[in-house]
C-alpha cells in the first residue's frame, strides 16, 4: 500500500513488531505482536539529520530479553510497551538528512523491528563498504557479534599460541567465531553446546579440537578436567551460573576470563550465585567484563583481519535465517531454548 500525502511525500504501510508489556522470566512470543496497520512517510522530517531506512535483516541476540524487563542496568534502555522492539540490523538508506549518508547506502547498526525506520541517532551507524559477502553477515560475523568475538578474544584475553581455550555456548553467533580465531592462532580449543547436532558442528564445521554437550554432563567440573587435564588458560564466558563455577576450579595460573554474556541467568527471577571466586586469588586469574561498543574504534582493524579469512575459507559462519518480519518473535524467543543453529537472523526484505 502506498499513497501520496498532501505535501507530495510518499506514505507506505509499515509492519512492526510491537512490545506488549514488561516480562519476568522467559519471554514468550505473546509478549510481542505484529502490527500491520502502521504507515510511514519515506522522507526524513525537515531539519532532521537522521535517516529513513528500509530494514533488510534483523539480528536476534540474547541481550534483547533483558530489554523486556523494567529493571535493567542504567546503561541500556528497555523496550517501551506499545512501541516497536529494536536491535541490530542491516538496512538501506531511503532518505538522508545527514551529510555522512546518502540514498542507496547500505548500513548496519541499531534499528527498529519494522519494515522502515526513522533513525535519529546515527552516531554508531556504520556504512557497509564491502558488499562481496552476504549482506546478512553484517548482522553477525561482520556486525556486533563479530566485533564482540574479536575484541573479547584479542583485546580482553591477550591470547598466545598454544594456550588452552574454553568457550561456552560455542555454536552461537559469538562463540563459533572465538573458536575459529583461537584455532587460527594455534590454540587448543574446546566448546560446550546444548545438543549433539551443535557438538558435531563445533568439531566438524568449525574445527574445534573437542566439544561436549553440557546437558549430558552430570558433573561439569569433571567434564572440564577431562578435556583440560592441565587446566584452562582462556575462558570465553557466555553462560554464567554453574558453568562459570566449574571453570573457576579448572583455571590455570594467570588465566583470563572474558565475560561476554550469561545467558543462563537472563530469564531467572532470582540470579544464581557463584561460589568459587576465591580460586581467582590462588590462580591470579584476570576476569573482565566487556561490551563490543567499547571497541568500535577497532572495527577497521577487525575487518582487515576477518575479510581475508572469509574470502580464503579459513573462517566459516553458520546462520539460521527466519523469513519475514512476522517470524521475528518466534526466532527471538527460540534463542532461549536453543532452537537456532548458528546466528539467528530475520530476513525482512531483499535489497
TrEMBL record:
GO molecular function, one term: 2-alkenal reductase [NAD(P)H] activity
SMART domains assigned: PKS_ER (SM00829)
InterPro entries: ADH-like_C, ADH_N_2, ER, GroES-like_sf, MDR_fam, NAD(P)-bd_dom_sf
Enoyl reductase (ER) domain boundaries: 50-346
Lineage top rank: taxon: Eukaryota
Protein name: Enoyl reductase (ER) domain-containing protein
Alphabetic keyword roster: Oxidoreductase
Amino acid at each position: 500500500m502506498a499513497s501520496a500525502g498532501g505535501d507530495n511525500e510518499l506514505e507506505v504501510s509499515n509492519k512492526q513488531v510491537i512490545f506488549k508489556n514488561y516480562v519476568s522470566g522467559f519471554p514468550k512470543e505473546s509478549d510481542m505482536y505484529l502490527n500491520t496497520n502502521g504507515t510511514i512517510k519515506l522522507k526524513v522530517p525537515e531539519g532532521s539529520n537522521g535517516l529513513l531506512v528500509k530494514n533488510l535483516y534483523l539480528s536476534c541476540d540474547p541481550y534483547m530479553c533483558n530489554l523486556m524487563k523494567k529493571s535493567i542496568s542504567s546503561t541500556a534502555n528497555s523496550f517501551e510497551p506499545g512501541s516497536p522492539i529494536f536491535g541490530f540490523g542491516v538496512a538501506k538508506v531511503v532518505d538522508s538528512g545527514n551529510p555522512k549518508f546518502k540514498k542507496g547506502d547500505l548500513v548496519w547498526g541499531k534499528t527498529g523491528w519494522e519494515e522502515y525506520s526513522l533513525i535519529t541517532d546515527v552516531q554508531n551507524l556504520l556504512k557497509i563498504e564491502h558488499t562481496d559477502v552476504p549482506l546478512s553477515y553484517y548482522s553477525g560475523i561482520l556486525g556486533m557479534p563479530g566485533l564482540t568475538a574479536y575484541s573479547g578474544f584479542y583485546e580482553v584475553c591477550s591470547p598466545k599460541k598454544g594456550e588452552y581455550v574454553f568457550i561456552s555456548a560455542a555454536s552461537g553467533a559469538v562463540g563459533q567465531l572465538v573458536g575459529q580465531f583461537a584455532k587460527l592462532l594455534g590454540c587448543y580449543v574446546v566448546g560446550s553446546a546444548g545438543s549433539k547436532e551443535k557438538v558435531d558442528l563445533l568439531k566438524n564445521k568449525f574445527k574445534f579440537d573437542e566439544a561436549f554437550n553440557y546437558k549430558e554432563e552430570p558433573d561439569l567440573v569433571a567434564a572440564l578436567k577431562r578435556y583440560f587435564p592441565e587446566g584452562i588458560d582462556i575462558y570465553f564466558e557466555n553462560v554464567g551460573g554453574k558453568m562459570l563455577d566449574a571453570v573457576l576450579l579448572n583455571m590455570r595460573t594467570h588465566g583470563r576470563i572474558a565475560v561476554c554474556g550469561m545467558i543462563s541467568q537472563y530469564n531467572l527471577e532470582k540470579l544464581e550465585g557463584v561460589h568459587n571466586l576465591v580460586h581467582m586469588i590462588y590462580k591470579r586469574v584476570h576476569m573482565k567484563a566487556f561490551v563490543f561498543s567499547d571497541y568500535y574504534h577497532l572495527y577497521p582493524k577487525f575487518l582487515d583481519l576477518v575479510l581475508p579469512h572469509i574470502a580464503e575459507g579459513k573462517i566459516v559462519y553458520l546462520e539460521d535465517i527466519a523469513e519475514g518480519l512476522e517470524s521475528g518473535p518466534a526466532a527471538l524467543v527460540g534463542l532461549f531454548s536453543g532452537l537456532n543453529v548458528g546466528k539467528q537472523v530475520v530476513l525482512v526484505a531483499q535489497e
